[in-house]
Amino acid sequence: MKIDMTSLDGSSAGSIELNDEIFGLEPRRDLIARMIRYQRAKARAGTHAVKNRADIWRTGKKMYKQKGTGGARHGSARVPQFRGGGRAFGPQVRSHAHDLPKKVRALALRHALSAKAKDGGIIVWSSADLDAPKTKALKERFEKLDLANALIIDGATCNANFQMAARNIPYIDVLPVQGINVYDIVRRKKLVLTKAAIDALEARFK
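Now predict its structure.
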């Protein structure tokens, strides 16, 4: 798959051939959905907790005699039936993470990249470098490029000036190629890859 390459100012910078094994697959929604569920579950803190009857401090003395009251037979005031008692079957601190095979995760990333390519959502830049970390100037460039909602992936390291200038612009994410992931690809309208990012991805999936 051949795609035109541009520079940060919008001028043409030639073209580049994208590997069909990474960008030319027929997207599978099920794989992408499984990967997003895996990522979001792993990101959950799992710190929710309630007090059950064992955690409530109250006397254990029987509330009233077993027989003769005409009411229910209660023993402890810590039970969930009473105000101030413990909660039954409430959430406890736990990890929400679940397993997903490494090969499935790698395949899901390729399918997410292919889905973006199929929808015409991939833009290739020769580089993403700035001389000074100026947010206003970078925002003006993005407006000229009609780039309002995008994930920008650079090579092994991102240009520090570009990263600093972009970090305060809403709906723009900048990541090194090691941080590329299915969830961020799907949630942004455009995927911007530098030439260094494409070279790194092709080496990774070789």
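The CA atoms of residues 20 and 205 lie 11 Å apart.
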